[in-house]
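Notes to self after the call with IL:
- keep both proteins in one doc
- input above output, always
- annotate only the second one for now

Protein 1:
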Amino acid sequence: MEKILIIEDERDMVTGLKFNLEARGYHVTAAYDGEAGCRKALDEQPDLVILDLMLPKKNGYEVCRCLKEESPAIPIIMLTAKSQEAEIVTGLELGADDYVTKPFGLLELLARIKAVLRRVKTGTRIPETYHIGDLEINFRKYNALKRRKPLSLSPREFEILKYFIERRGEIVSREDLLNHVWGYETFPNTRTVDTHIAKLRQKIEDDPEQPTLIVTMHGIGYKFLG
């Protein structure tokens, strides 16, 4: 049984998450401030930490830094009420494995939990810095260079690239991307994937009209050849 530690000061949210996660077979414990959460994580060594950023005594950034210094193998999913990309990127730079922005749906969180635990189990964590030709992507600092010039990629675009790299050479459907990157098990319009892919190609491909990294598999999805 996989152990999940929730570090969150909103007790009603903890109660709801604990009930739903335990119903799906996880063993769940909780801490309600940053100091207690950090101690509990280091003592219990859970399989996953769900970490709120706005915590009393020690904020989520400090907890994330502490855990990644003392026990870097513990995966962390951040919960944040802030939608600004800068806040999300700060947490990811500190070593968080994924994030969910409040308010979030239960299916979204469950999908992200499954995805992070799967990556840990299968050992498919990718290198901190990944090179593809003249493209350099740093998934710890969340920055990217092309021909040594900075690229402006959104957190979602970094997550798309990370998933493609984990599945490089395989055909990835739009539904796979929605499930594992957006976190939705269902979504009314897969065009949102195509829109993000088009924008990403504009940034990373030498010729976005003739892509060589993210190739469309007509009627199926995409294949990453980097």
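Protein 2 (the one to annotate):
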Amino acid sequence: MRFVVALGGNALLRRGEPMTADNQRANIRVATEQIARIVDGNQLVIAHGNGPQVGLLSLQAAAYTPVSPYPLDVLGAETEGMIGYMIEQELGNLLPVEKPFATLLTQVEVDANDPAFEHPSKPIGPVYSREEAERLAKEKGWAIAPDGEYFRRVVASPRPRRIFEIRPIQWLLEKDVIVICAGGGGIPTMYAADGSLRGIEAVIDKDLCSALLAEQLSSDLLVIATDVAAACIDWGKPTQKSIAHAHPDALEKLGFAAGSMGPKVQAACEFARNTGKVAVIGALADIEEIVAGRAGTRISTASHGIAYR
């Protein structure tokens, strides 16, 4: 079977955790220990988030005043290499030495007229208190938005239209290579008036890009791995319930928050509806159980309504 596993940026660097390389590697190790158990006999593509990581690089770049900070597309390319390297190394330490890996810098086309450019909504970087977030917004001209009890910087998040490296990814899979690609939703690019391709100051949603990737690769399963065990209703309330499985139409009616579970639900629903296959939202540490059908929230057109755990 062919799987696309999308690792969330907040799962690789957990909320409230110091943003160190050691912490990131430890969280990646949790993911790779799970992924190593589903490799045998399957083709595997790994995508990943990069919101906290690209936000950290942005802060570091802003602190170095002699030169202008690098734009978000360049920082996104940096994080693809950094996170891909760690995933390759940690997974390679668990699998036979002859198993090949490849990390691909992945350019993704977006539409210059996408309405998302008028309404920044994609959270990047670390979380802040309201007071600190408002101070940074004033100093740096950022847009900010709530993220649970905290606040984060938000930027434009245009929809992915085309993955330029889809053919090389396909070729590598046919050679039994584990491919790490589309990190952070890919590097956002668009065509200029003169026909040249250029990067833009935006972040593509990782989950929507992973869904497009899985669809274009004819994946049998899309796994969206995050820092919670399932999609839930009444999150954080005494009435909270985990969703076991759902039809896309029923799940979308629940109205999940745009800054957290919303994009994951949207991506899972789009993949299930467009392909007739299954998408699952669940915890990083449950990937083996997710693939076995025993964990996470399963979204499929074969299901009717919503069932809870």
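Annotation: The first helix runs from residue 9 to 12. The mean pLDDT is 91.
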